[in-house]
Amino acid sequence: MAETLSPVKLIELGFELCGSYSIDENDMRGFTGRGALMSTASLQRYLQKASGIKGTQAAKRALPHIIDGSASPMETKLAMLLSLPASYGGFGLPKPRLNHPVITKDESAYDGKRHYLCDLYWPDSKLAIEYDSDMFHTGSDRISHDAERRRNLIAKGITVISVTKDQVLYASKTEALARMLASKMKRRVRTSIEDAADRRIALRKELFR
Predict the structure, then answer these.
(1) Which of 9, 124, 152, 195 has the most other CB atoms within 10 Å of its CB?
(2) Contact at 8 Å (CB) between 36 and 18?
(3) Burial environment of residue 56 by CB neighbours within 10 A (0 to 12, 13 to 18, 19 or more)
């Protein structure tokens, strides 16, 4: 695939292979869940032995931008938009951990949970993003569960930010999100490349076409 895909689509495929989903047009969500097929570490080990095979160099360039643990295509797209360098059209934020377990002590967990999986998590900043999809975050029971989860994470000193589908799909809302995250991380959104805005548009076209 590294011989035929663009750099962005190759990175996106890497997220899928190292994540817990497969694209499936027959599923109403557009994907199905499964165990990870590989990891960035196993990919790296393979590529170290694959010198001389066509596509190896392109795969090696993509590898540093792939993150283990994505559970859905939208999580992948959001992580790529936020963490890819400006040269790719991203905002250059530190790479988050995807579906990372945060341990919760019994006495601080209202619902008795020992840990929660954060969709995107930056441990150094104690900052978590919870992606609220239209399909799975509606209904009183689900809303109550999500509220309980956020309370428990906040009790651990973690800042929890809810992100909606619109914030991923609309460029201006994604930029506002990236700048807010950068501020909380005490960083700046990298815009040093002269055509940064054009590169962001190009990245979105590849991810959402």
Answers:
(1) 152
(2) yes
(3) middle
pTM: 0.89
Below-50 pLDDT ranges, the chain: 108-110, 137
Instruction: Supply the DSSP string of the chain, one letter for each residue.
Output: -TTTS-HHHHHHHHHHHTTTEEE-TTSTTSEEE---S--HHHHHHHHHH-TTSTTHHHHHHHGGG--TT--SHHHHHHHHHHHS-GGGTS--PPPPEEEEEEE--GGG-TT--SEEEEEEEETTTTEEEEEE-TTTS-SHHHHHHHHHHHHHHHHTT-EEEEEEHHHHHSHHHHHHHHHHHHHHTT------STTHHHHHHHHHHHHH-
